[in-house]
Design a protein that fits this description.
The structure holds two protein chains of two kinds.
Chain A lengths: L1 E3 L4 H8 L4 E4 L5 H6 L7 E4 L9 E4 L2 E5 L4 H7 L5 H9 L3 H6 L2 H7 L6 H7 L3 E6 L2 E6 H4 E3 L2 E2 L6 E7 L6 E6 L10 E8 L4 E7 L9 H10 L6 E3 H14 L10 H19 L1 E3 L2
Helix pairs in contact in A: 3-4, 9-10, 10-11
Chain B lengths: L42 E5 L2 E5 L8 H8 L18 E4 L2 E4 L12 E3 L12 H9 L8 H14 L5 H7 L11 H18 L1
Parallel strand pairs in B: 1-5
Antiparallel strand pairs in B: 1-2, 3-4, 3-5
Helix pairs in contact in B: 2-5
Classes of the chains: A alpha+beta, B alpha+beta.
The complex binds flavin-adenine dinucleotide (FAD) and FE2/S2 (inorganic) cluster (FES) (2 copies).
């Protein structure tokens, strides 16, 4: 039984190579599992002291977010550079959870309700994984393979998240049973890129992995007047409907599939209205 | 319901003969029946400015468990043990976290401040006094967690608006007061501190 407290990334990667190693970031998923008796770590590698994992780099070419950045840090530091990610971080749990929980842990847990996932999907983000065998970069859409399943291999440390530049409005909206401390029943991220003239949409909690409604995205990009940044009223409902059709929600103890389906359409329409001026058709 | 994982005891009794338990990793060394359950080597935590030695803890023990059951600091309460209620709030290097979500061994090298550390030796802090005055304490179970969260809020945003106060306290549940009196207590502290400061 052991704990290691690496203070450098290479030490963390070495420690992660031990077969029984359990990586620990903020503990908001892991400790809850341990408290409930569902996991029993034997060799914990505590990542909190590795400064490289908290690095943030904002350049015109890319935003690089350290996997160990807490939700509080992301909400504070990325509000201008990646507003949808900052907004998602701000909706997570409570101040206590946001001060401890990290974006890297959110990704690795890969819960369908993980609030950063639809945002990172809409941003075409990729993650950098490092192990004793080397470094590889994997797009988020290939990383998350199912409910709480990822393509991360044993011994790999998620080091940073690479977010390509997007110029335009961004939104993140979620619905739950109340305002605070709530797991998303449905969520939607919208990322407009005026440069490439695209609208990307990520839907959360309505499928095993974040959903990108490709047909809806292509439709709305064709409806927007990119010179004026307006969209005709009639296109909003169609966009929302197309997006909701791509969703694959399930009924569980939190909500029915029908409700999630309806909610996600409302969120997508609202996110569009907040991003682009809607004009009479 | 065979998929339901077996519920394990929160901490293996140190020094006793343990049951074989499923390990986190398939590669973990198996624990044979009758073998002593492993514990961590003793480690030190800095709690309320004092170095405390933790002996006999296992690796998965939460900071909440260590504070209460090993260090006797029972002011910090525990209820849900899943980060939902905030009754276990402490400051870890100055920011408020749920001690049930922190593995105690991960607090090595950090400064832990509990409700005991925020309570003056000779009475109550202004926050505690205001909670009493406003009627924000009924059964009192949630109070230590609220005091820690309010302390954190007012040290970073002394002039927080009511909306900001409510958001800052959204991780703390109270089953008795309905929150109005707790929010009122924050306002009392803000007024008093402002009067003193300016
Ligand atoms: C009360 C409560 C409310 C919550 N509310 C929300 C919410 O509203 N929205 C939401 O999305 N989530 C919510 N969560 C879950 C959220 O806090 C976690 O998903 C968090 O992001 C996990 O990060 P962590 O740093 O705490 O990870 P940990 O718990 O430390 O680790 C989680 C997993 O990730 C692995 N891991 C962590 N870091 C790395 C790394 N760098 N490389 C490789 N593996 C790694 C660990 O081994 C572990 O398997 C909530 C949790 C609680 C307790
Ligand atoms: S006991 Fe920690 S949040 Fe409830
Ligand atoms: S006073 Fe009883 S829970 Fe708050």
């Amino acid at each position: 039984m052991s704990v290691t407290w690496p203070t450098r990334l290479d030490e963390a990667v070495d420690a992660a190579a031990a077969p029984a190693a359990t990586l620990l970031a903020g503990g908001t998923d892991l400790a809850v599992e341990v408290n409930a008796g569902r996991r029993r770590p034997v060799a914990v590698v505590a990542l909190r002291r590795v400064p490289e994992l908290r690095d943030l780099e904002i350049t015109p070419a890319e935003v690089v977010v350290g996997a160990g950045m807490t939700f509080s840090a992301i909400a504070a530091e990325l509000a201008a550079a990646v507003p949808a990610l900052a907004a998602a971080a701000r909706t997570v749990g409570s101040p206590q959870i946001r001060n401890a929980g990290t974006v890297g842990g959110n990704i690795v847990t890969a819960s369908p309700a993980g609030d950063t996932l639809p945002v990172l999907a809409a941003l075409d983000a990729s993650v950098e994984l490092r192990s004793a065998a080397g470094t590889r970069t994997v797009p988020l859409r290939e990383l998350i393979t199912g409910v709480k399943r990822t393509a991360i291999r044993p011994g790999e440390v998620l080091v940073r998240i690479r977010v390509p530049p997007r110029r335009g409005a961004q939104q993140f909206l979620k619905v739950g049973t109340r305002n605070a401390m709530v797991i998303s029943l449905a969520s939607a991220a919208l990322v407009v890129d005026e440069e490439r003239r695209t609208v990307a949409c990520g839907l959360g909690s309505v499928g095993p992995v974040p959903v990108r409604p490709a047909e809806a995205e292509a439709f709305i990009a064709g409806e927007i007047d990119w010179e004026r940044l307006t969209v005709p009223e009639g296109a909003v409902a169609r966009f929302a409907d197309l997006a909701a059709r791509a969703a694959r929600p399930i009924t569980d103890h939190r909500a029915t599939a029908e409700y999630r389906h309806h909610a996600v359409a409302v969120l997508v329409g609202r996110a569009l209205r907040r991003s682009i001026d809607v004009v009479p058709a | 319901m065979s998929s339901q994982p077996e519920r394990l005891p929160r901490q293996p009794p140190p020094g006793t003969r343990g049951q074989p338990l499923p390990d986190d990793s398939a590669h973990a060394p198996p624990v044979a029946a009758g073998e002593p359950v492993g514990v961590l080597a003793p480690y030190e935590l800095s709690v309320n400015g004092t170095v405390r030695r933790v002996v006999g803890a296992w690796v998965g023990e939460s900071l909440l468990t260590v504070l209460r059951d090993r260090l006797g600091l029972v002011g910090t309460k525990g209820a849900c043990e899943q980060g939902e209620c905030g009754s276990c709030s402490v400051l870890l290097d100055g920011s408020v976290v749920c001690s049930c979500c922190v593995l105690a061994a991960d607090a090595v090298g950090a400064e832990v401040t509990t409700i005991e550390g925020l309570t003056p030796p000779d009475g109550l802090s202004d926050i505690q006094q205001a909670l009493v005055a406003a009627g924000g304490v009924q059964c009192g179970f949630c109070t230590p967690g609220f005091v820690v969260a309010i302390h954190d809020l007012l040290s970073t945003r002394p002039d927080a608006t009511e909306l900001e106060v409510r958001e800052a306290l959204s991780g703390n549940l109270c089953r008795c007061t309905g929150y109005g009196r707790i929010v009122e207590a924050v306002r009392i502290v803000q007024r008093e501190r402002e009067a003193v400061g300016g």
